[in-house]
């Protein structure tokens, strides 16, 4: 990686008097660019010269978000040495335009030291905070093929991450296990995402939710060998990604694309993007259920939602079986009063051949 000339930067700032907080370029501000590329010397220099640590780009990324998206703690250490404000006035951590906090970013990197350092800066409730699309840190952690088992275990044990939960992106419904299989995380991580029992009691009612194995299956997504990075979440893309027609080298992964226009406010329409495949690592034909699902967007209108939210449109009938799209096993506990509940005598309706909903 080409390193910037510190002498040139000092000349521009100290001799020519360039505006250290001037806006322009892909990262919009010099401070954000220095942090994004891991240029520690330049990051420290700009802060010493009075660069504003609270600037943010069009997507709401601040220097703290970028520091937490690097697989080392050096940039974060530099920021903390300058007494960077870690929370907003209300006490919450800063969020980008998608509602992601520094904890979301740190979880996605897969580095235990970084994640634990960032998590320790905030209240434990941040471990389960959902972004605007409904994705909690554990989901973002699973977007990285190098997902760290220690991070996943910590989020489950301390952040109440619900491995039964389901979430939507534009063309797909996910559980943590299904997402992990698509992304290609390790078998150790996958083992953490499977429940000890395939049924659990629903709060208050005492009825049972069943874990439908078929739903949680997924073919492995196509891995481009770290060649394409999502310019929103800063992770290497897996599967289909999207190229902006107007911005040079600006790409979004399938997850961030489903949050348009938040993920790229400048060009927030589908017409502004080219879809690039393939989606899966193998060259075999998709099964009919998966193929039909890929063609029809869900009712979320392109955003990601917790199943059970009013935005999903409509409610689900009780006693729905896997053959018709069993959603009874994976609804968040917070919505238990409205969830589908399946009695034990419905177990005969399971169909192991149904993989999609």
TrEMBL record:
Query: Where is the sequence biased in composition, kind Acidic residues?
Result: 319-357
MF terms from GO for this chain are: zinc ion binding
The segment annotated Disordered runs over 265-357
Q: Which UniProt keywords apply?
A: ANK repeat, Metal-binding, Repeat, Zinc, Zinc-finger
- Which residue spans adopt a coiled-coil conformation according to this UniProt entry? none
Source superkingdom = Eukaryota
Each ANK repeat occupies one of these ranges, namely: 30-58
Tell me the ranges covered by the ZZ-type domain, including all copies: 224-266
Pfam families recorded: Ank, ZZ
Matching PANTHER family: ANKYRIN REPEAT AND PROTEIN KINASE DOMAIN-CONTAINING PROTEIN, ANKYRIN REPEAT-CONTAINING PROTEIN-RELATED
What is this protein called in UniProt? ZZ-type domain-containing protein
State the organism of origin.
Answer: Aspergillus brasiliensis (strain CBS 101740 / IMI 381727 / IBT 21946)
């Amino acid at each position: 990686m080409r390193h910037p000339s510190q002498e040139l930067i000092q000349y521009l700032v100290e001799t020519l008097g360039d505006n250290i907080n001037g806006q322009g370029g892909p990262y919009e501000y010099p401070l954000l660019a220095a942090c994004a590329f891991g240029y520690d010397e330049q990051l420290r220099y700009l802060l010493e010269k009075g660069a504003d640590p609270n600037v943010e780009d069009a997507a709401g990324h601040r220097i703290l978000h970028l520091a937490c998206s690097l697989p080392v703690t050096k940039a974060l250490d530099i920021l903390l040495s300058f007494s960077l404000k870690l929370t907003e006035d209300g006490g919450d951590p800063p969020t980008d335009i998608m509602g992601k906090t520094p904890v979301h970013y740190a979880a996605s990197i897969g580095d235990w030291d970084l994640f634990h350092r960032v998590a320790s800066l905030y209240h434990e409730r941040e471990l389960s905070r959902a972004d605007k699309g409904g994705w909690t840190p554990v989901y973002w952690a699973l977007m990285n093929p190098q997902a760290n088992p220690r991070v996943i275990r910590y989020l489950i044990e301390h952040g109440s991450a619900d491995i039964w939960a389901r979430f939507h992106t534009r063309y797909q419904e996910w559980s943590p296990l299904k997402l992990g299989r698509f992304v290609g995380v390790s078998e150790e991580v996958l083992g953490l995402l499977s429940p000890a029992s395939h049924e659990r009691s629903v709060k208050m009612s005492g009825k049972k939710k069943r874990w439908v194995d078929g739903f949680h299956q997924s073919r492995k997504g196509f891995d481009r060998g770290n060649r394409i990075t999502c310019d929103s979440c800063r992770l290497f893309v897996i599967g289909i990604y999207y190229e902006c027609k107007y911005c040079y080298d600006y790409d979004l992964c399938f997850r961030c694309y489903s949050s348009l226009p938040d993920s790229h406010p400048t060009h927030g329409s589908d017409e502004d993007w080219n879809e690039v495949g393939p989606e899966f690592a193998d060259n075999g034909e998709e099964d009919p259920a998966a193929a039909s699902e890929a063609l029809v967007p869900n009712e979320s209108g392109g955003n990601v939602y917790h199943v059970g939210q009013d935005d999903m449109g409509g409610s689900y009938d009780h006693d729905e079986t896997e053959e018709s799209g069993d959603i009874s096993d994976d609804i968040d506990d917070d919505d238990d009063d409205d969830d589908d509940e399946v009695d034990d005598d419905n177990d005969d309706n399971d169909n192991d051949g149904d993989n999609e909903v």
